[in-house]
Amino acid sequence: MGKFIHTISAPIRELKNVVGNLIIFWPDTVFGNKLRNSYYKKHLRSLGKNAIIESGVRFGQPNTIDIGDNCLFGRNVNVNAGNCKGVFIGSDTALAEGTYLRSGNHSFRDLDKPILNQGHFAKAIKFQGQEYSVVIEKDVWIGAHCILLSGTHIGTGSVIGAGARVSGIIPPYSIVVGNPAVIVGNRIEKYGSKDSKI
Which of 1, 9, 35, 119 is the most buried (most CB within 10 A)? Predict the structure, then answer.
């Protein structure tokens, strides 16, 4: 009986994966976005209102990912939350095309053991009463093809320039560029009024 169930369930799992990929790669139309929102609403730990999820966006280990309202995910963004504490993405945040977020890393300390057999490790960030491995607070703009690694905590209102590689703490309203990422300015100091406060 067990072999029969396995024989039947394997093609069903494959069919679910085919349907999932069809939804993920559906063209960027109003229907495609609604389809992806509906699909990810069932898989993510939380997905806020009015998300725009473009074609090719992937969420690895989605049951550990929290996403706020009004977020934009450009084409082929990859939020890989595997082997970590989870990922938080705040409201009104945009991740541009090709951004890659990886919240866990391969262990590689044991020289007598292949890296692929050493498991993973992930950093822990306490945020809003929970632990995450990557936190992106609200109103953040992440440019195209950025790489965000375990331990990244980007403060509210920050801008991360295209192609930046981030792996640490970015204070609120920072302007960040480069690989490795460097803070080159502060939006309040550069553009804010004299009454602006962080």
Answer: 35
Burial 152-183 (b: 16+ CB within 10 A, else e): bbbbbbbbbbebbbbbeebebbbbbbeeebee
User: What is the percentage of the chain residues whose pLDDT exceeds 90?
Assistant: 78
Of residues 2 and 92, more confidence is placed in 92
The count of other CB atoms within 10 Å of the CB of residue 151 is 18
The domain ranges of the chain are 2-191
Question: Sign of torsion, CA 126 131 137 141?
Answer: positive
Nearest-5° angle of CA 102, CA 184, CA 174? Answer: 60
Measured N-to-C along each axis, helices 30-43 and 2-24 cross at an angle, to the nearest 10 degrees, of: 140
Q: How many CA atoms lie within 13 A of 187 on its CB side?
A: 18
pLDDT of 43-76, one tens digit each? 999 999 999 999 999 999 999 999 999 999 999 9
Considering the domain 2-191 in this protein, what is its CATH number?
2.160.10.10
